[in-house]
């Protein structure tokens, strides 16, 4: 079943085209990571899904219903962590939750939710005294009210320390395991990489790549980098490494040789060095990160459109 569907969405703000004929589909049970540089159109997309603004062209549906004509019915089924949310200064955390629970007609226990997001001790303090991270946790707890079928999270890690970001990931996973579909935007590659089934990369209002992290890596032809520390970087050993099957992009430093290797080529490179005249002192491997992919895709796009 399709939960989110954007069909040819264009959004113009005067002369600025924030979204340009965007198509996007998220299926039930998916965790979808929505990535893009500043100004690429992520918040605009989320605002359209939430019916805060309307597209210039195209149609957005949630659970098969038009987001504009069925907004009331849809609202009961989604939990939202907006980009910027103004809490009510004079209300306590508990009161914020009581209000949300009542307006959603849900039966959650406010304390249970505050415990879930790690701020039970702040339940009876007014929100004006909350730190940025505490506010983010409170707003997340409000998004969880009523066990929504879909969670829409705009930059959920904003204001969270590393511990908070890890807890956020755990909550997202838990919610997904209970059956919720998750759509979240992020700049934090590790977070997306750790938990997403699929990611979409938005640039200038257009989706320039969309797939699993694994497939995106394959498409980009990004390879593992093997770095070898040796007693001496001789022309002979560099030559021997270069001639190993699956090796490309050989670069050398004072006492090291770095190569890009295809799957399964590592042993051959190491064996080659070990049977040469130089001594292999250390080696390490690093895979291309999502950050590398992101940079490669968005740079390509910029260069392509320049
Ligand atoms: N209300 C508005 N009026 C005019 N231009 C707008 C408005 N909202 C967004 N834009 C423009 O639309 C484009 C997309 O903005 P949007 O906020 O959706 O990007 P974003 O990917 O969410 O960025 P960020 O990561 O910085 O939050 C930008 O060029 C922005 O300046």
From TrEMBL:
InterPro entries: AAA+_ATPase, ABC_transporter-like_ATP-bd, DrrA1/2-like_C, P-loop_NTPase
Signal peptide: none
CDD domains: ABC_DR_subfamily_A
Gene3D superfamilies with a match to the protein in the record: P-loop containing nucleotide triphosphate hydrolases (3.40.50.300)
Presence of keyword Cytoplasm: no
Keywords associated with the record: ATP-binding, Nucleotide-binding, Transport
Pfam families cross-referenced by the UniProt entry: ABC_tran, DrrA1-3_C
PROSITE patterns in the cross-refs: ABC_TRANSPORTER_2
SUPFAM superfamilies: P-loop containing nucleoside triphosphate hydrolases
Domain (ABC transporter) ranges: 4-229
GO molecular function list: ATP binding; ATP hydrolysis activity
Family label: Belongs to the ABC transporter superfamily.
Name of the protein: ABC transporter ATP-binding protein
The organism of origin for this protein: Halocatena pleomorpha
């Amino acid at each position: 079943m399709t939960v989110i569907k954007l069909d040819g969405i264009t959004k113009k703000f005067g002369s600025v085209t924030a979204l340009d004929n965007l198509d996007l589909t998220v299926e039930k049970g998916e965790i979808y990571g929505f990535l893009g540089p500043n100004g690429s159109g992520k918040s605009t997309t989320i605002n359209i899904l939430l019916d805060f603004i309307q597209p210039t062209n195209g149609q957005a549906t949630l659970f098969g219903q038009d987001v504009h004509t069925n907004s009331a019915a849809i609202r009961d089924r989604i939990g939202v962590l907006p980009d910027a949310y103004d809490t009510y200064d004079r209300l306590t955390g508990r009161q914020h939750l009581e209000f949300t629970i009542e307006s959603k007609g849900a039966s959650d226990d406010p304390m249970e939710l505050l415990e879930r997001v790690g701020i039970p001790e702040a339940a009876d303090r007014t929100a004006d005294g909350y730190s940025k991270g505490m506010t983010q946790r409170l707003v997340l707890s409000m998004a969880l009210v009523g066990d929504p079928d879909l969670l829409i999270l705009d930059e959920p890690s904003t204001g969270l320390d590393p511990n908070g970001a890890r807890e956020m990931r755990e909550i997202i996973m838990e919610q997904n395991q209970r059956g919720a579909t998750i759509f979240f935007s992020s700049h934090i590659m590790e977070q997306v990489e750790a938990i997403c089934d699929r990611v979409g990369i938005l640039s200038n209002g257009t989706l320039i790549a969309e797939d699993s992290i694994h497939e995106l890596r394959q498409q980009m032809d990004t390879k593992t980098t093997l770095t070898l520390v040796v007693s001496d970087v001789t022309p002979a050993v560099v030559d021997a490494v270069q001639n190993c099957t699956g090796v490309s992009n050989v670069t050398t430093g004072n006492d090291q040789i770095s190569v890009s290797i295809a799957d399964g080529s590592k042993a051959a490179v190491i064996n080659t060095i070990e049977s040469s005249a130089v001594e292999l002192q250390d080696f390490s491997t690093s895979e291309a990160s999502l950050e590398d992919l992101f940079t490669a895709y968005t740079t390509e796009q910029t260069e392509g459109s320049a």
